Each structure stands twice: as C-alpha cells, then as structure tokens.
Amino acid sequence: MTRIALLGAGGKMGVRLAANLRGSRFEVDHVEVSAAGRERLRQAEGAECVGETEALAAADVVLMAVPDRLIGRIAHGFIDKLRPGTAIIMLDAAAPHAGRLPARADVTYFVTHPCHPPLFNEETEAAAKRDFFGGVHARQHIVCALMQGPEAHYALCEEIARTIYKPVMRAHRCTVEQLAILEPALSETVGATFSLALRAAVDEAVRRGVPRPAAEDFLLGHLTIELAIAFGIFPEGRFSDGALKAIAEARPVIFRDGWLERVFAPEAVRRSVEAICDA
Description:
The chain is α/β, with parallel strands linked by helices.
C-alpha cells in the first residue's frame, strides 16, 4: 500500500484532500502544525494527526497542501528526511517554476492542479451544479506535470491527483512551464481580471440606471452563447453583423496593442510566480 504524508492536512485545502483520500487505497498520515487545524480536521474527518518526522520517515509520497509562499521553505526543511525515491506532489506550479525547490536528484517532483468544473457541462444534480470549486460533487478536468523523477512515478502521482480532485474526467499532461502559463497567466492574470472587468461593467450599467437583476441576467445569459461561439462549442452559432462591428470598435478601446505578448512572455510569467512565492 502506498503511504502518503499529507502536509497541511488541517487547512482548507488539506481537509478537502483528506476527505477524498478517505476510503481510497492509499494509507494517509495527516500532518498539521496548528492546533486549530488539527481540531478542524478532527471535526470534519474524524482524523488524528501524527508528527511530521514520523510521517516523512514512512512516506512513499509527500502531498503538500500548503500555501504557495511556504512551499519552498517547507520543502527545504524536510528534504533531507525523505527516503530515496520518495515522490513530492505540489498543488501549484508557482514554487517549482520559480526555482524554490531544493535540489535532490533521487526524489520525484510532481505538480497537479484542478481545472475546476467547466462552464459547459452535463451535470444534472443540484449539488453538482452548485459545486463551483469541484472535488466534491461536480466532475472536473485536471492538469499534471512530472518535473523530475522516473516515468513510472507519473502514473502513481496521476492516480493520487485523480483521487484528491475526484470526480475527474480528463487528466492533461503538461510541463511545469506550461502549468505556469495556465496559472497564473491564463486563469488569473487574464481570466480573473476579465471576470472582475465584467463585474465592473455590470456595476457601471447599474450606475446608469439599469436594474441590477436585469443587468446580471442579461450579461450572464449573453456570455453563455458568446463563449459557446468563441470556443466552437456552438459551431452553428455566429456573431451578428452588429456584434462584429461592436467588437471591432471596442477592441482598440479596451485592449492595448501587444497585451497578449506582454502577459504570456516567459519573463512575465516568471515574475508572476516569483511574486506569488514572495507574497
């Protein structure tokens, strides 16, 4: 049986992972430094924690459910306690891509991250439709990267990733560099920023007299068909001539020339992950 040391088991993400690992084929040692976190885990999962030294000494896999800014420091603190061949799984590419991991050639570094439930899905149950984060009721895709280590470890670590993020549909294999493009560049620098811009546009429509429920219903409804057209999910759909004219006129007003190149340039992605680690 594969033994996992779950670090940060009493945190918000750690409790989620502990819940999905319960009843799996993996044996889990829960590690949590804070008394509040240990109590949270006990209340949520009925699980007791063990000492970090004990858990690391027995671990086949170390699963780091800790904040991005702490991954490098924590990994440097325990790296010498691991047996050769141990796999370390991280939940974000920031620290690995920023070069914050300790150098040790005989351990595996693996990174995985959820895509979260897709906007266009086939969920029918109410609980799944309200599971916006995923990992409880709603199905989602995930991304995975083997940063270093034997190829045989990829299958094991992907199995663990599918377990902690279940229910999972597709698992996409990427490089760590590609994961850093996906997050923060694509999902946060672009996606989150655009999302808040859309909210600001609704607020402005409301300021100009449109009832908020009408503004929200109108935009969110239009986004469904607009995104379906843009991403080819609704292939028979087309933007109207009026919409195309509005897009052409709005693009230079809203976007600066070269914004894509600036956001996705390797040095920009690197600065972004370093800022995350130094937050």
